[in-house]
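Here is one chain, start to finish.
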Amino acid sequence: MDGIRIIRGSGQIGGIVTEIRKGDHRILIDFGACLPGTNAKISDEQLIQKVFEGEGEAFHTDAVLFTHYHGDHVGLKKCIPEEIPLYAGKTAIEIMGIIATSVDYLKKKEGNNEEIELPTIRRMKPYWKLGTAKDFHGIRVTPFVCDHSALDAYMFLLELNGKRILYTGDFRAHGIPGESTFEKLIREKVGKIDILVTEGTMVSRIGEEQNNHIRTEDELGREAKKIFASHKENVVLVSSTNLDSVMEFYQATPSDKVFLCDPYQARVMRVAMEARSRYFPEYRFKRRIYVLCPNENDICMKDLYSWKVKVGENKTITAVQKADPEIYLNQGFVMLARPNRNPNFETGRFEQRMQQMQDPFITYSLWSGYLKGGKAEDPAIVSFLQDYMDDAHFSRLHTSGHAYVEDLKKLMDMTQPEVIIPMHTESKASFEKLEEFRDHRGALRLIKDGQFFEIG
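Its structure:
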């Protein structure tokens, strides 16, 4: 049989693996680990066995294509057999390399000298020329860059047995590229399709969306400017790889304050700026980045000193500098932070720095589900925030990395699919109930994990 099978992810957010099959050949899209708090019917261990052992051995896997670098889409990548080709975006591979280097370094400090993550990253190939198709034994794949909270994310136009299939992966229309870029992509590059396989994260979180006054990255940046101007000591909790938000916070830092981050974050920002600065002003170098070095030792950032930027017709400066507590505590700052997750430390490095501050203000830019009492309450985050959860010291400033319901409707209206298969959602049944999708209810196919959708 030829067709599509969502091996895992039809009824949950994250932990995604999808199979596109042609005869005894197939490609896989993503190979993700489950998110914390996910009530998965298929465990990560069971998934690996299901895909590559038993029934999985009957198929030749021509490639695994990764939509983006978030762990719920790439987290099990090292379990993929070495002979299978792996593809991802060029910038995404660079960012995964930074993440892998950090993970392997921490493992080494724990006494494990074996490289855990890097060998898999070295196997990855960047996507072929964007907007052009590559054939995998009768499955034609055309990758397109799309807007998501992960930089260099992709959706795929698949062609199988004369049918045009759009596999969206995680996407949105309210990031730095903006709604017009999303509409142009769908109108000029995708057009009419036969089958739409779409994420539906925000269908599960409509109430959360309605309670959030920040909807776009542009709004986030404007609000951040007000907050940073009103407080001397600004501490921001944001995902290090949510580059749109990171760059909005960087650009929103007032001229009289210092922008601070650790070496890991600085490396990610460097990759982002060098990849995107020619396209989006928000990704351009604006001010020197001051790096918070563990134990005030700058040996961990020596590679960063090679980062030079042109700031005038004949002037070049080093983009980074070691942070001096005496200067930034006196001058004021915006500091990207992360909670302590090292069981060997009772107090993390950022918590220790906060003890030096007089009156820090926390800007929380992560999913609300990680907070105390949330669906996926994160003990590290709860501990980090425990002394600051009042109006004088805390504000939520976050926008989703996923498409809002109105954007999903717009996608359906623009592509006019005959079949719509929701996935990456905890409320796929809501697709049949929402008024916004009324005109497309007849096209909906609510398939289960492992259920094969045949394309003749």
